[in-house]
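dumping the sequnces here before i forget
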Amino acid sequence: MLEKLREFYGRHTQRITFLIILLILWTLFSLFIPRFFSYANFFNLARRTAIVGIVSIGMTIVLISQGVDLSVGSYVAVSGVLVGSFLTGARGFPELPIPLAILATILVLSFLGFIVGFSIHDLKVPSFVAGLGMMSIARGLAMVLSGGRIITGLPREFTGFARMEFLGMPALFIVLLVILLGGGFLMSRTKFGRNVYTMGSSKEVARLSGINLRINTYAIYILNAILSAIAGMLLAARLSSGIPSEGVMMELDAIAASIIGGTGLSGGEGSVYGTLMGAFLIGSLQNAGNLMGLDPFYLQIVTGVVIIVAVALDQMRSQQEA
Amino acid sequence: MPDDGDYRITMENINKTFPGVKALDNVSLNVKAGEVHGLVGENGAGKSTLIKILMGAYTKDPDSGDIKIKGEKVDIDHPLQALEYGMAAVYQHMKIAPELSVAENIFLGRQPRSRGLIKWNEMNERAGEILEELNMGQIDPRQKLRELSNVKKRMVAIAKAISQDVDIIIFDEPTAQLAEEETEQLHEHIRELSERDISVIYISHRLDEVFEICDRVSVLRDGRLVITKNIEDLTEDDLIEHMVGREVGDLYYKEDIEFGDVILEVEDLKREPDVADVNFELREGEVLGIFGLVGSGRTELVKTLFGVHEKDEGKIIINGEEVDIKSPFKAIDEGMAFIPEDRHSEGVALTQTVSDNCNLVRSLLQSNYGILNRSEEEKIARENVEDLDIRTPSIFQKLRYLSGGNQQKVVVAKWINANSEIILMDEPTVGIDVGAKKEIYKLMAELLKQGKAIIFISSYIPELLGICDKIITLSDGRMTGIKQAEEATQEDLLYLATR
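..and the predicted 3d for all of it:
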């Protein structure tokens, strides 16, 4: 039993250590910041973290494959606009029932993800550039489709989801948990997951081991686009509107959550669980700062420092190992 | 030739401890002026550690003795300082700037300048003079380093060292990626260095080289100095025994295995511009060697067989049926395996665990709705570790922390688990030590006994003669001959490979 526990710790040292740090941080906040340790505050924290968390999980998968996708923030905006337009029939859109509107949005975003994957694999465009291009394309699309205006009047059945709760937890957070568990299973228990890790370790090793790089590259970027679409629709539900200027800089938050959670930029390493903790760390710092009445601009500085420190610590650790 | 004057380098009772490991234990090394001093030992014997201490990349433990250069006690704690004492190193993985010219590389950091601008003409001229003086006149100082062959890159490194008034040069596995002919060129240059009274420390895994150019040799084993002797007083067998600490017997390992059916036929295979006129048959239990110099198209040939490149013409017939192999996956599906030359970028996923790497190909061939059977995989990986004697603390260890020989065993395990019938091996024993090499040969014999067949590329003829049944030669992208290994000689093969 102890042996098993030790082996488990050996394999997951980084994530367990991180979890302990997060718990210590929460304890400190709870002791020194009034109102931090309250049901209402944790409820709020969970709901806030849900949307960026979902986007971060997609980003983590892309980063593990040794790519990066800068278009996620724009995806969130265009998904909100799309689902809003389909639901309200605004600007010449067909008015669709909720399930069809969601499906249609996911299909459009899958196509955008496919274009990114196609550019990377077939046109040999570096993922950074492909993402930069799609970031602009998707943002432009959000503006064009909405005419630059906020889409309102979303049906109550749709927006109500964001305010629902199950087992005392916000529905948004439940969605995050489901995606987290699904993503964790996908990455550690399926061929696809191992293909992604192998591609991230070395594309050539992957190819010479018989992995189909084309299909897997498409799948990675389509999956990432779909996760962003889900996040975008949840955000639209929470804000009761589709906002074309939403999600700006969200790609950076997603990358930050991933790398704080131990996913490297050089590929082949990382996990979605680490990313969730990374997202919570950033979320908790901001939440604590808000409660203390700190200027949000300072919080931005603190977040930046945390990113650099987290990665520096991780570098030190891996150098010791080597 | 070396004179018997004072030692140019003396290292006395050097100790080095890393957390948990005594890497060097009272090692003393003396190098005479103008001699070529071989430094040999298995991987992990402490060669690199000793050299890194000499060059100032590591510091020795405080209970160590002194290091003296030309009789003067020195404390080198930075590689730049080593240069001040007249020492330079030419490493296996060269620290050069591929996009800069030969002259720029030679004068890197000390280009002739006036008012902050580089005097290009003067620099190119001076580089030309240096190269000319070293009989390397065929190298154009204006050429980019990237465009040079591996041997010329090393020559540039030598020229750079000489131009810095160095009188001690350390070569660490300098011939690892060189073909036979190029190795000889490099050796000639090293002999010239010795005539100029420059001391050379030569680290190599290839003992024939050590015998060819070294005057004296020191053997390290498990962090201790075993012997230092004149090369005339040693035989190859002695040297191996000292390195391994026990008798290994033959260097190569081959069993008499009866051949089965023809498993692979290749007819008139062609792929522009590297592969042409390739014809051969391979039977179950047989090892086909491929010999060719670097650039002869040998890697391209196996990559064409494996579907990495598409063939232009010709037939590939497996078990009597012609197959059209358009991708590595198709090749794997037809029962082929490929162990590439460059382990790190093509063979193993360094960030993945032993278990993941062992099961990588096997799981792709099974459907199981895309879901991995982790417990079965772990069981298989444990068996692999046991059977192949892969030295790793656990099957969950990441590959990057394994030694080269053990990484190579994992690559072999990956293909054994995929049940491949035809195994293509491209220089599988490069950069791994004598003991591990022999384990790989034994493993090959095991596979052959199960009716598998092997295609084996090597640029080292004795190895090919030692383990192959027949050998084809390639020259400049064409197949130029096929020989039974028993009848072939080193000269035959070299002749065919340079035709």
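The radius of gyration of chain B is 24 Å.
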